[in-house]
Specification:
Layout (H helix, E strand, L loop, with lengths): L10 H21 L5 E6 L16 H18 L5 E8 L2 H10 L7 E6 L2 H11 L5 E6 L11 H4 L4 E7 L1 H7 L7 H7 L8 H8 L2 H20 L6 E5 L6 E8 L3 H34 L16 H23 L4 E2 H11 L4 H13 L21 E2 L3
Parallel strand pairs: 1-2, 1-4, 2-3, 4-5
Antiparallel strand pairs: 5-7, 6-7, 8-9
Helix pairs in contact: 1-2, 1-10, 10-11, 11-12
Length: about 375
């Protein structure tokens, strides 16, 4: 369990780590049901400002801890799986601490590399068996040339979580000489050369944010032939501006499903701490408790909270439009991946939405005959009345 007190002054890490701590225990059991080896790759491992005492507030600590738990669970089920980690850290002091820290995770085969991540990528890629599943985390402080990690991004049986430093991209995207590494991989799409720079220059605010993010998502998706590339927005602590985007790459709808569960959890963590920060700021300025503060931990007007509620509204609207466009109905297995790819909503929440619409006679699901079934099954066909 992540303790928010570990993250004073680095609240963005709490959002990222909430995502990891939700994603990994949900995804690993699904992966090791068919793969005998789960490989975690962290190209910028740290540790960064750990305060927990046992590295439970670091990305590698969360990952290795969850891998250890998953391996033990599989052993209880009579299944032997191999857990492997490749961790890269450039800074000599951090690297020395990292090599000591990983000794506490003896059930994971850990390989540590000191130096520039780009120089170790090919070596790491060559050591991973074809059948192994890879989860690649690319979480730099700046904006590296992501193309140099293609050898890790491109193989099958891979999912990726990349920290896209939106703040830098928003400032420099479109300026060819200010940040050439960013320009290099953002410029790799096939439309008229330079047209995207002109488009960015004409946009502001949320439209510009969406355009830059979508271009990064598309460039990364193309790099490895991925089907899905949703993004989690991590905001600055004191403002409503985005700091970075965690872009997730997957080729399978199950990965997308796990991502959205972890995504919503991370947004809830962000909304909670930002609501608390704002309430405390108002209290300090006024010298008294805020009589108009939200009675819940999350202020419903907070940007992350609005993203969650807006996602649910958008998901229902998209689904209803899909059904209106398809006479005769659509199988549930063909509905939910498209909606989850486009909207911030979990698989369960979307299923609950269908159940409510069915109860109100707004959709038909003829095969849904048992009251014991709480959400639609993949083979159920959903249609308008």
């Amino acid at each position: 369990m992540l303790d928010p007190q570990w993250y004073e002054g680095r609240e963005q890490a709490l959002v990222k780590h909430t995502f990891l701590d939700t994603y990994m225990p949900a995804q690993i059991p699904k992966i090791v049901s068919w793969a005998n080896e789960f490989t975690y790759i962290d190209l910028f491992a740290g540790p960064w400002q750990s305060k927990s005492g046992d590295y439970a507030d670091t990305s590698f600590g969360i990952a290795l801890g969850r891998m250890t738990e998953a391996k033990a669970m599989q052993a209880r089920l009579g299944r032997t799986v191999k857990m492997v980690a490749h961790l890269v850290e450039k800074d000599a002091k951090n690297f020395a601490e990292l090599t000591e820290a990983v000794k506490r995770f003896s059930d994971v085969e850990v390989h540590c590399y000191q130096g520039v991540a780009e120089l170790h990528a090919a070596t790491i890629a060559s050591l991973i068996p074809t059948r192994a599943f890879r989860f690649v985390v690319i979480d730099p402080k700046g904006v590296p040339d992501v193309r140099k990690f293609k050898c890790l991004i491109e193989p099958g049986n891979t999912e990726v979580l990349l920290n896209f430093m939106f703040q830098f991209a928003n400032r420099f995207a479109g300026s060819q000489d200010r940040m050439p590494t960013l320009e290099g991989w953002l410029g790799g799409l096939s439309e008229e050369e330079g047209s995207w720079r002109r488009d960015f220059a004409e946009l502001k605010g949320q439209e510009r944010e969406a355009a830059i993010t979508d271009r990064a998502r598309q460039a990364l998706r193309n790099m490895g032939g991925y089907v899905y590339a949703p993004a989690l927005t991590v905001d600055e602590t004191a403002t409503e501006r985005p700091l970075y985007k965690l872009i997730y790459l997957s080729r399978h709808p199950v990965g997308l499903r796990v991502f959205r569960d972890a995504h919503v959890k991370a947004l809830e963590a962000q909304a909670t701490y930002k609501s608390a920060k704002k309430a405390e700021s108002r209290r300090q300025k006024s010298g008294m408790d805020d009589l108009f503060a939200s009675p819940t931990a999350i202020n419903p007007g907070e940007r992350s909270a609005l993203e969650i509620t807006g996602g649910a509204v958008a998901a229902q609207a998209m689904m209803m439009q899909m059904l209106a466009d398809k006479h005769g109905g659509i199988d549930w297995k063909d509905i939910w991946p498209r909606v989850l790819d486009a909207c911030v909503i979990t698989h369960n929440e979307l299923g609950d939405c269908v159940r409510d619409l069915r109860s109100n006679a707004r959709v038909n699901v003829p095969a849904w005959t048992s009251a014991a079934v709480k959400r639609p099954k993949d083979e159920f066909t959903v249609s308008l009345p």
